[in-house]
Amino acid sequence: MKPAPFKYVAAETVEEAVAALGEHGDEAKVLAGGQSLVPLMNLRLATPGVLVDVNRIAELSGVRANGNLEIGAVTRQAAIERSAEARAAAPLIVEALRHVAHPPIRSRGTIGGTVAHADPAAEIPAVLLALGGEVVARGPGGERTIPADELFQGYFTTALQPDELLTSVRFPAQGPGARTALQEVARKQADFALAGAVVAANVGDDGTCESARIVLFGVADRPLRAPGAEEAVTSRSLADVAVLADAAQSAAAGIDPTGDAHASAEYRKEVAGVLVRRALTTVAEGGVRA
Amino acid sequence: MATTETNAPYVGRPIPRVEDARLLRGLGTFVDDIQRPGLLHAAFVRSPFGHARLTSIDASRARELDGVALVLTAEDIEDLAPIATGLPREEVVANNRPVLPPETVRFVGEAVACVIASSRYVAEDAAQLVDVEYEPLPAVIDAERSLAEGAALLHDGTESNSFAHIEYEQGDVEAAFAAADHVFRKRFHHGRFHAAPLEGRALLAEWDPGAQEMTIWMSTQIPHLVRTLLCHAIGLSEKQLRVIAPDVGGGFGLKLHLWPEDYLVSAASKRLNRPVKWVEDRSEALAASLHAKEIICDLELATKADGTFVAMRGRYVGDAGAYAAYPFTPLVDALCAAVMLPNVYDVQAVRFEVDAAFTNKCPAGAYRGVGWTSGQTARELLVDEAARELGIDPMELRLQNTIPDGEPYVSGTGCKYDGGSYGAAQRKAMELIDYAAFRGRQEEARAQGRHLGIGFSPFLEPGGWSGELAKRMGFPFDYMDSARVTIEPDGSVVVAMGLHSHGQAHQTTMAQVVADKLSVPIESVKIIQGDTAQTAYGAGTFGSRGAVIGYGSISRAAEEVAEKVKQIAGLALEAAPEDIELKDGNAIVRGAPEKAMPMMMVGFTAYFGAFVGGKRPPGIDPVLTSTRSYDPPETYANGCVAAVVDVDVETGAVIVEKVVIVDDCGTILNPMVVDGQLVGAAAQGVGGALYEELRYDEDGNFLAGNLLDYLYPSTLEIPPIEVGHLQTPSPVTDGGVKGCGEGGTIATPAAVVNAVADALSPLGVTIARTPLDPSHVLSLIREARG
Amino acid sequence: MSVQDRLVEGEIVVRLTVNGEERRGIAEPRLLLVDFLRHELGLTGTHVGCEQGVCGACSIRLDGELVRSCLLFAVQAEGSSIETVEGLAPGEDLHPIQQAYHEQHGLQCGFCTPGLLLATVDLLERNTSPSEQEIRDYLAGNICRCTGYVGVVAAVQEAARKLEAGGS
Fold it and tell me: Which residues, 6+ apart, have CB-to-CB distance to B549 below 8 Å?
């Protein structure tokens, strides 16, 4: 199908983008990578009246590691994959990107775009939540920071206002005991997950898990923390099979997924637990390497 | 790669394709690449409901949009009669499909209006402005329920929802079952998927009011049949219509049909005196082109105590969708499945019952391997289950019951197999996949908690689809397949044939055939295909027929031309025509090769005689051309596919580790091309077994409308595929060619499904449907756990 | 000009470089880049298979990156440098990658081929000697319905050998 007509403007600065979003209100949508938006427009499932193209805003692109890892919203996923700094600071992001679609999608797709699109089966929002990251947004009233815990509010819905532009995505510095892992099941390797689990843990020298953030994706209307599973592993040894089984069971018990053409609700529930166990096992073995 | 043992220089060798250069450069010509002055574009308004009364349709807003040239609804096309699909068999009730439905829509995606505008973009804008009101009706989405007593009838004036109810019996089947030591049963619901060629349907119709003729460029496999079937429907005689199939981006059987869209676009061009193009988009392709292979099979196998098969019964209910696919009919699924029930097994007592039931889904028709795929999957799964119950190795059980190699055999459904490597192919597949080592590997893996499985699928591939074969399969039809071979003055050889390649490299393989027959360098040969104004009549390329039909028709025509060449050369070289041989582009005197006449000289002598100091032989017509047809008898290729899978029993995910396909298609024209066909078909089989599904919900809503729901297998889903060859030339076809192309799609789903069943058999899992997506596999495991 | 003044509604001229040549054409904002290349510039080698970004038939390179031209609007490509399949072969001869596909039977109907060629160009630029798994990973975004990928993988391996041996 071909998209419906729209007006187009290429912003050159963040101020211009925010002004355009403010001017056109509900009619306007941000065009970043376009890898999620344009398919919807081609199917006429999305019919914005105005597209505000942010691809030419130079300040929105770039990976900066200075303690925290700060990535400009329009930074291409492929650029992040290739960034040694990103890999050193948060190898989980690079690992997660391997699961995101295909190289040509990642050469245009942006990190800000995928976070703002908030597909509940997407990897990067789950990674952001698991690492305890945050985003920076700018609107007519100025700049604000939104922690990941507050960002994702429902199906394809974030706390961003229509006149706000997401400008950067931040991941906190990882300590020396930080270990991460991501496990997912998809129909085709590069597709959205039927279910997925992300673990970001701090593991002591003796193998005890001091703290963990465990996030499930593809099983609800947003990426979800699994507090029962987190409790099951805190201050416990990840080498203990019973601990892992406990965490898996808690994770599965704590969700109420829906079924669709690709997988039943029972499937998602059962497999979420399996994936939590597998991700914890990976963490026990050292986690994702930089 | 296999080679044919022959002295012939081209046939049997992996000659690289002449098609490649233009395709690699991006200089191919597909329908959408064609520009015509004044071109307009079509888009369609399509029903969002699976079954509904169309209560009103108002195109006035659409017609007012700038750039819109025409909007057609049912009331605007009284001159376009419904498309009537039938067969000259008493069991068949002809089905009418309105070009635009006046009152009732019967599947999601059915076109209810046609918009013609200055661009596809504007046409879609206008389509959204057509106001349609529907009253939804309950949808019928189960083929068996569609046939049940009291089911709502989907078509007016019919007594049941079955397009045809067909029964067949040979031998005293009931007695055989009653006397059997064991009876094994299997119910299997084969999933609905489809050809999904990467280039969808497309046509460009251009009416020339001056010449009163129409040219249609169409992405089709059957240009001549399109011309014959379409012309009268749009008010033309055959001589007024020219159909050109340019480069076609895949067909796989889908492009053997005609649809309302074709009639509407052609009629619009005639009304507007402007060329009109329609290029199907992916959503339309998925919802509204052609579905295939969904059959509910109930099979029974009767055996003796030692596992000898004594009888088989099969009930096949095909899900035909809302209308009978035109012109091949939905019986290509259920009836073809039934006729091949016995496969390579020596079973003479066979009974089958077939129905093709209408439902509120997209019409179903031909897709590579047709219903043979579905029947194969159900039957080979049953054979494996029988083997497990009998405690016999499944390959031992198969080989015990397989007909002897090399000898012709008439099957329990009357098929005349022309002798093949029925058992040898199975043994070769076992060897290539290293079956001997597998069970040990499987046990080791199980000890580590991994579930590997192996599955086999010996198959037959009815080839060369022609009159005799079609009738054997249940379709009373004869085909006109011909080729014209011409030698031009300069000795160039031009073949104009009725086949049309859409990936099978006819331009190369058919050149190989004629180059051998006339012993000319292949570079001097040109193959013309696809343009009805330039080619001899043919039914097109499908049904593994290209090589058989091409070889036969071209050889016959070439032989006639060769005779004339010998006459002309004989006169010139002072030898009897019987003593003239064609060799390396020359006509030579046998035994005296220095007496040679190059083909160019032969040509100039025939055409211009005295002008080149030559003489035409008296009493013969010197025109160096011949058109001959070929209607081959039944012929059957055979082979065996084997697959190894790794099933993750915690997530239900199935990885195919390896596929092996052994094929015996008799004489091979080009082994590189054959390998490509085998591997490509096998990949489609993997897709159908695990990934591809055209699903509907209970209300007839279509759930596979985009490529995140309909899953084309990629490089990560298709494993390495190994090919093995055997060659048993057919004793009954020209050149011993049996045909190739469908074997992989016929047999691979069964091999993959059998492998999964084998992997999960210790868990007590029984498989009764495809595709085997992770959610379904895990539910089977969960149920078996109890 | 303020951002409001730069709002585009109707057709504008788009200027870009395609296969090393400066080209221009007319586009309204919604015109997809693939349609612009095919119908405005007459470069019909790049094909449309899904308009969803899944099948890869529309793959081209934009400013040195492999992209889906069905997911870009022509107006976004102003000033960019684009490579399409028509620019691969240097002259009469085929590019070594094209030659490899020819020799290894890496194409049948040819519809997916241009997209696959561009993806192969991109892959071999970044990884001159990819393993089979790396090839399959990189080309997973290019659907082929005809070949079953065996010939494609063989073609890419042969192309890598040819390029290493010094063919352009």
Answer: B464, B466, B481, B499, B538, B630, B632
B448-466 residue pLDDT tens: 999 999 999 999 999 999 9
Kindly provide the ipTM of the predicted complex, given to two decimals.
0.98
Nearest to A190 among C29, C52, C141 (CB): C141
In a domain, A289, yes or no: no
* A247 in any annotated domain: yes
B243 close to B220: Cβ distance less than 8 angstroms:
yes
| CB contact (8 A) between residue C136 and residue B712 | no
For chain C positions 60-89, those within 8 Å of chain B (CB to CB) are 84-86, 88-89
Residue B270 scores a pLDDT above 70: yes
CB contact under 8 A, C110 and B16: no
Q: Which residues of B touch A261 (CB under 8 A)?
A: 695, 703-704, 709
**pLDDT, tens only, A138-193:** 999 999 999 999 999 999 999 999 999 999 999 998 888 999 999 999 999 888 89
The pLDDT, as a whole number, for residue B786 is 80
Nearest CA in chain A to C64: A107
Q: Provide the number of structural domains found in chain A.
A: 3
**Among all chains, which residue has been given the structure tokens 């729209």?**
A6
**Domains in chain C, please, with CATH?**
12-87 (3.10.20.30), 96-166 (1.10.150.120)
Q: Give me the pLDDT at residue B8, please.
A: 63
Q: Is B156 exposed, middle or buried (0-12, 13-18, 19+ CB in 10 A)?
A: exposed
User: How does strand B241-244 pair with strand A134-139?
Assistant: unpaired
Identify whether residues A232 and A205 lie together within a single domain.
Answer: yes
**For residues B518 and B583, what is the distance between their CA atoms, to the nearest angstrom?**
8
Confidence band, pLDDT 50/70/90 cuts, at residue B663: very high
Domain contains A267: yes
Domain span at A82: 58-171
C9 vs A7, A12, A17: nearest CB: A7
Average pLDDT score over chain C = 96
Chain A residues at the B interface, defined by Cβ less than 8 Å, are 1-5, 39, 43-44, 185, 187-192, 194, 261-264, 266-267, 270-271, 274-275
**pLDDT value of position B1:** 43
Enumerate the residues of chain A whose CB falls inside 8 A of the CB of residue C29: 5-8, 51
A290 assigned to some structural domain: no
Instruction: Identify the CATH number of the domain in which residue A32 sits.
Output: 3.30.43.10
Instruction: Report the half-sphere exposure of B615 (CA within 13 A, side-chain side).
Output: 8
